[in-house]
Amino acid sequence: MEKFSTHTGIGVPLRQSNVDTDQIIPAVYLKRITRTGFEDALFSSWRKNPEFILNQEPFNRGSVLVAGADFATGSSREHAVWALKDYGFKAVLSSRFADIFRGNSGKQGLIAAELAQDDIELIWKILENAPGTEVTVDLETKLVTAESLVVPFHIDDYTRWRLLEGLDDIGLTLRNEPDITAFEATRPVIKPTTLPAKV
Amino acid sequence: MSEPTTPHTVDDAAVEETAAQVAKIAPRRAAKTLAEKVWRDHVVRLGEGEGDAAQPDLLYIDLHLIHEVTSPQAFEGLRLAGRPLRRPDLTIATEDHNTPTLAIDKPIADLTSRTQIMTLRNNCAEFGVRLHSLGDAEQGIVHVVGPQLGLTQPGMTVVCGDSHTSTHGAVGALAFGIGTSEVEHVMATQTLPLKPFRTMAINVEGTLRPGVSSKDIILAIIAKIGTGGGQGYVLEYRGSAIRALSMDARMTICNMSIEAGARAGMIAPDETTFAYLKGRPHAPEGAQWDEAVQYWTSLRTEDDAEFDTEVFLDANTLEPFVTWGTNPGQGVSLSGSVPFPEDFGDENAKAAAERALAYMDLEAGTPMKDIRVDTVFLGSCTNSRVEDLRAAADIIRGREKDPNIRMLVVPGSARVRLEAEAEGLDQVFLDFGAEWRFAGCSMCLGMNPDQLEPGERCASTSNRNFEGRQGKGGRTHLVSPVVAAATAVRGTLSSPSDLEPAGTRSATSFVA
Question: More exposed terminus of chain B, fewer Cβ within 10 Å: N or C?
């Protein structure tokens, strides 16, 4: 995974709460077996509407999505993160994220930055008054900057450290492989196994 | 970044020594609730530090369920890194999301679906994973198959690349959905690094009235706490109304924990749980059964335990519940009306309601029971078990379907389908004019050909009413199986109590 420290890019105000995973990427796109190439799938249903924010200059070049509360509720599909990344988003700002999406983002180097709803409202106003305003998301200082507004965001410290260092989770875990083997030796025999199959 | 591991082996001689090691490396946090106890018993390595700065705990995973949609990229990741799948014997796969529910003996018509299914078959063969393919008697929706085989048991940690993994919490397992990166992580290490969840008690006391079911309980809870209310929590459903529920009904509740924002929902194992598990293919037997029951019994939340949050719901006054909007929190009693956006205090909630009404083509103030539907879908990991089918069949037996309604009945697994057929339920549905399909996720998310047409309105026993979820432009009302059945009779959203007495073909017993 690439290291992340700070990103500056055009902010996109998505003034809507409960943007669910089926809107971010409809199920029909989940049939693919690759991890990339999902840029066409992002918000594919909404993008058919010419009024949709990503169909407007300069927001179509945006890389910081500023969304309403409860972003990415619903499915566990990591495809939602892949689609946002493939489109060019580096960070999503919201006052509340679905747990699984936030976890998936952390694995893929997409910043899910949690801000106070009041601060989200202020950023929306800035982006609507001056389309094309760049937003800076600084992972070192945990601050978001838009014009003269500087507000803090929250991200889990462990996730932040991993993103700053660009560390891969599986590699980190395998450093503790002896612990896993030791634990396995103590697992009760009453625990079921899938093999051999019984039906 | 790390070297590939050698395949897993257990050296008996090392057991004693390693047990001592584990005691040293995995100190125990105080654990008083069911969720905390299960967590405690799976800590491979305790994260250092406290609060926000804490490292995650490394948690052992007892069972990994796999399906075709969220696994191909994970298998590919293993292959690229040269890593083995650590515990094929704790892994099981089934085909469900993409599979057709008609003509399952023919090649899958949709090429991308077929490729995805073939990819799963090849991956399972290569990595030695047990797979129940289309046509196999144990094929079906992953969350129906696991409990049915007795593979999900109390006190286990269960994960799957699917958010409705919370279903398995009904047996007292800590079960939650994960993304594809985590799927790969579990394949490679049989563990996950996780921060402890907070705990929330959902207390449901009282007795459900006839025609009211566990689906109504969970829809009412989601309407109460919202789609983000459970975020960061494990829910524990408690109280007399929960204890009175069957296992199938408990699974419906735990299934939709994710719709309240919680990754997991649990119910303490009790006699109902043990009776359900006894004799299932992978349940313990003989002396091991007794040992297991003793352990399972110890898992219940202690009387002096404190939850981070508590929620209360009165079962006595609960009515059949139905959604009017485009997220599962936008629900109302079936006897109520479509709400007015201005009644929502918060500006964002008001805007969301306006948007939902426009998408759903509904006018505020319309009685819910005046809403005419086109399709009734009885199925999904929420409500496709044999009791769900039985409850719906009991409503429609001896009655006639509204001629304009299309009704799809999709059993959750091939095994459920066989059980239902042995009871003659298939004939009840067919006589009524419903379609009797093969098992799978089907119209819950419309990855296969079972989809709504644009503008079509559906009363669905599934779990999500998101825009376009069941087909582009489709409109979804979430309902219980008996409300789905009553709706198919009347053509408008209806509760069983709205129906005229059944015809003379057979006596109707009333099952909630």
Answer: N
